[in-house]
Design goal:
The complex is a heterodimer of chains A (about 300) and B (about 220). With about 300 residues, chain A is of the alpha/beta class. Chain A contains 9 helices and 13 strands. In chain B, helix 1 crosses helix 5. Chain B has about 220 residues and is an all-alpha fold. Classes of the chains: A alpha/beta (about 300), B mainly alpha (about 220).
């Protein structure tokens, strides 16, 4: 069986949203897939469908040869049977239990000795071993995030699902934790799906990225590809490219004309890229609409086509 | 004071409260977590004893457990005697009569439990039963205790249903409230007053304990 997860689901929320998504995530070698989109675009619903907490209307979800959902055959595996590690946006730590009890919660099928050992190992891995006797309310946001991640990975899940893993942290903590999380995900080698609307998080964590808007898949690729070559104006809007520049049509194969250099410096333009082959002028947070001399006054040019 | 009636009453209330834990928790779980569109139909039936006159409820229970009903016939065949005017019949009636007093606090407490915690538990591999026992029940302990105590206290004071279903058999179905009624009918006000004071004090004590337990510290005088 192919070592990958294939998702092809549709779910209709009358009057609000129609979800229609096709995803492929390699399970080996493990990779991190980013679901990127604005609030209400349906990315968390996709994650809930993967977790088995939500039932799609149609389609299928196959994971590494197992069928998790098949609308036609009426198969819907429970969350319990999917062996997942989920980390929720607000962490959902059990308030009445200590850190150690939270982490041990998913290890009920292990013998007591091994369970204690696994809890200790996981807490050490996430550097929260000193807090094992504390309750979640006594922890800072960053510490809660670590404990939630520890709880999710302690049972060695087959798939990690992280919903806005860093959104509850303040900006300096987030910057620090981002790198650590990337390192940890690589170290764990568990295929992961991360939902986010933060481009920094997407670039830092993702191997692959899917942009979701209004429940539809708008673009898929590596985060660099998506941010460097957004497919159309909708993707530009969603990935948060704020500066739109108007340029002039430059003939095929030419380097940038000198008069555009100030603009290009501002946008970190790669000078080697000639305009028609990559017709969107772009750096991380910029986008250019090119104007053709003969055509309509403003034309949106698709990077892929040109 | 009629200690025999007091004994019957406490036995009835204790058994009713125990039965309502066993019956009420699954019903409340279903009421709280079901997404069935017509759930309100069941909720209304559960709440019916709150508004129905006890005589009406008692009448229907009497008919339902009587020897002419299938259930009553089955019981009479098995036990050798019909259900009405026995302690068992009275117990069934009390359970139905006090059902909303247990189910509603239970369900209200379950409603308060954050659904995300429950989903987190499921994704960690915990079955629905384990999630209920380890997570939902401890988090709704106050509501569950309230339900048990209220159904106990409510059974202590029931009158109409007892009269309809249990009759007035000394040592079997004569409860405290029936005893007080009998004393008043016999113009023995002193005896009635003694028992009434006893019931008043016990009921007040039970409610005190419920309200004291559910009291939020600092709700009146904010503490630092």
């Amino acid at each position: 069986m192919a070592a990958e997860m294939t998702v092809d689901i549709r779910k209709c929320f009358p009057g609000r949203l129609t979800l229609d998504v096709q995803l492929v995530l390699p399970v080996a070698p493990p990779s991190v897939l980013i679901l990127f989109g604005p609030s209400g675009s349906g990315k968390t619903t996709i994650l809930r469908c993967l977790a088995g907490l939500e039932r799609p209307d149609h389609g299928h979800i196959h994971f590494n040869g197992e069928t998790w959902f098949d609308g036609r055959a009426g198969v819907h595996t429970t969350p319990q049977a999917r062996c997942l590690g989920c980390m929720f946006q607000d962490y959902a730590l059990f308030p009445g239990k200590t850190v150690a009890e939270n982490v041990a919660y998913g290890l009920a099928d292990l013998p007591a000795g091994e369970r204690a050992k696994r809890v200790k190992e996981t807490l050490e891995l996430l550097k929260v071993q000193s807090m094992e006797a504390l309750k979640p309310a006594q922890l800072s946001g960053g510490q809660q995030q670590r404990v939630a991640l520890a709880r999710a990975i302690a049972r060695r899940p087959h798939l990690l699902l992280l919903d806005e893993p860093l959104s509850a942290l303040d900006a300096p903590t987030r910057a620090r934790v981002q790198g650590e999380l990337r390192h940890l995900l690589k170290q764990l080698a568990i295929p992961s799906v991360v939902v986010t609307h933060d481009w920094g998080e997407a670039l830092a964590l993702g191997d692959r990225m899917v942009v979701i808007g209004d429940g539809q898949m708008l673009q898929a690729g590596t985060p660099q590809e998506v941010f460097n070559r957004p497919k159309d104006a909708e993707v530009v809007r969603i990935v948060g490219i704020e500066m739109r520049w108007r340029g002039a049509y430059v003939s095929r194969g030419m380097d940038l004309p000198q008069w555009m250099w100030p603009v290009s410096r501002c946008m970190h333009w790669r000078k080697s890229v000639s305009v028609p082959t990559c017709s969107c002028v772009f750096a991380r947070r910029t986008w250019c609409w090119l104007v053709t001399a003969a055509g309509p006054p403003v034309r949106e040019i698709n990077c892929g086509g040109a | 004071m009629n200690w025999i009636a007091i004994g019957v009453t406490f036995k009835l209330a204790t058994l009713t409260a125990c039965a309502l834990v066993v019956l009420g928790l699954p019903i409340a779980y279903w009421v709280s977590f079901s997404r069935w569109r017509w759930k309100f139909l069941v909720e209304s039936v559960v709440a019916l004893p709150l508004v129905l006159p006890p005589t009406v409820l008692g009448f229907y229970i009497l008919v339902a457990i009587g020897p002419d009903s299938p259930f009553g016939r089955l019981y009479a065949n098995l036990a050798g005697h019909p259900l009405p005017f026995t302690f068992e019949g009275l117990l069934i009636a009390s359970i139905l009569y006090s059902l909303p007093f247990a189910v509603q606090p239970f369900a209200a407490a379950f409603d308060q439990v954050d659904r995300r915690l429950i989903e987190a538990s499921w994704t960690l591999g915990a079955s629905r039963l384990r999630t209920f026992v380890e997570l939902i029940l401890p988090m709704s302990a106050a509501g569950v205790v309230t339900g048990v105590v209220l159904s106990f206290a409510h059974t202590l004071g029931e009158f109409g249903v007892v009269l309809m279903v249990g009759g007035n058999i000394e040592g079997v179905t004569r409860t405290v409230s029936i005893d007080i009624y009998d004393e008043v009918q016999a113009l023995n006000y002193a005896g009635a007053a003694q028992t009434a004071v006893f019931l008043l004090v016990v009921s007040y004590g039970i409610l005190l304990s419920v309200y004291a337990m559910n009291r939020k510290v600092g709700a009146v005088w904010p503490q630092k």
